[in-house]
Amino acid sequence: MSTPQALEVEDVAVYYGGVKAVDGVTFTVASGEIRGLIGPNGAGKSTVIDAITGRRKPTRGRVRLQGEDVTGLGVIERRQRGLARSFQRTSIFAEMTVGAQVELAARKVGATDWKANAHEVLRQLDLLELHGWMADELGYGQQRRLDLALALVGRPSLLLLDEPMAGLSSQESEQLAEHLQQLTSSWNVGVLLVEHDMDVVFGISDSVTVFELGQVIASGDPAEVRAHPRVRQAYLGSAA
Amino acid sequence: MSAAFQGITRPAHIAVATAAALAVGGLAAGGIGSDMLLSLLTQATIFAIFAVGVGVLLRQNGMVSFGHAAFYGLAGYVAGILIREMGWSGEGAVLAALGGVALFAFVLGFVVVRVPGIAFGMLTIAIGQSFYQGATTSRSLTGGADGLHIDWPQTLFGVSLDTLFQPHVMFMVCWTALVLCVAGLALLLSTNFGAVTEAVRDNEERARFIGIRTLLPRVLVFTLSAFVTAVAGTLSALNTGFVSPESLHWSVSGSALMMVIVGGYRRLWGPALGAMLFFLARDFLGDFAEHWLAIFGAALIFVIVFAPDGFSGALVGLWRRMRGGGKSRGAAAVQAN
What we know:
The complex is a heterodimer of chains A (240) and B (337). Chain A is α/β, with parallel strands linked by helices and 240 residues long. Chain A has helices at 45-53, 75-80, 98-108, 114-124, 140-152, 170-187, 198-204, 222-227, 229-236; strands spanning 7-16, 19-29, 34-38, 60-65, 68-69, 83-86, 158-162, 190-194, 207-212, 215-220. Chain A has two domains: 1-82 and 156-240, P-loop containing nucleotide triphosphate hydrolases (Rossmann fold, 3-Layer(aba) Sandwich), CATH 3.40.50; 91-155, no CATH class. The mean pLDDT of chain A is 90.
């Protein structure tokens, strides 16, 4: 029997009245795989993320985590089943210390040894020395890493990252990308990465899916997608 | 734990602070010879409890209530009606008033805490004013606009009323209630519950995405807040032997909110400090100015602009600077750990 995928998105559609924000989207993310999700603004990337996390109910289609159908479940139930996410805008607890919020998150997601788990996540993301700092005192790059730490506690099986590099300097982006690659391989976590920084996406993704007007126009390994004529024309430009 | 909310400390610190606060109250009760001043301090202390109730809702849920007078007045009316109309014992009436208001707030909380921002404030005004109208018009039960006189039984929790109504005893009862309310909240909020409610207040969506069910913690904070306010309402009914519709009016809630802002809500004791300042200002300024509230209003503007953490925040800031501070909150927290 084959191992179930960390995530299976099958024929998912999200309609707002007559507007088809996402229509008939299908892809998978395997454990330990980073799948990049790219497309112009308004292509439906964030809507798909919301449908996967349970923040938005799909009009049609199924979402499976580790083979279990979670389409009818809410945000908290999906988190308990190993689905974690970061947000387009940094989403942390501004008036709590770094350590307090990561420990709280580890406890709430049901990590067996939550203290050890929180410590490990803080160490992996170079946040250990900022343990006692208030979140609103951190620099932007540190806040992005804290956001990621909150998603990573409890060792999720699937991590959805919505533009994690937004607003970071190129050096900070490189560091974060490095962290991501390390975590993905050492924790065997599946990552769905929505990102505008093409260097990052094509640099660290094992596979890439391209969206346009709510539909998948190309999917495959990075080199294959780069060479896809419709992608070159519609999104990457002829220079890509 | 959040270092921004310095009111929460470890149990040993809370125990020491509680003992010290009770000792200060005891010294004040024994040392102040003027019955009038003790009476003023008793009223201030009752309102300090009220303000702590309003403050904890703002601090833990980030919600501004203009209707907490409903819980304040309701507690007095419940106790008064149970004693007067149904012949309940004083102890039974007090416990029923506190428990009844808490239960009512718990049920109400499931509806109102879902309402965000300014709409919540408007909703609390509407609820509060409906109680005010109800008390004014239900003459047979509440005495209408004339209010309700409460004939407390001769003993309450084993203490005779003659003893209880001595100014220094009544002050000490109210002061003890205030200290226990603050200490109880500090203890509770130093637990995981405090961290959860802070997380929900800071970022409800992120809280859900780390597996927190956000409604119940908000309802429980609302209930706690109403309970503390009901303690104040019950003590007021005991102190004066009277409860009137004015105690339910939104302007009373507004005064409590002013006390919270002036004292500062980031520390649990801040609203109590604000209440004390409010009453002292009313007493002293009232001798010189007919419109003392206008002067207090100017002070309120000053605090909002120059000391957004209120007087408690300013005092703590001064204390830290005197101890050679100037460190960032994070650095201070690192040092504390």
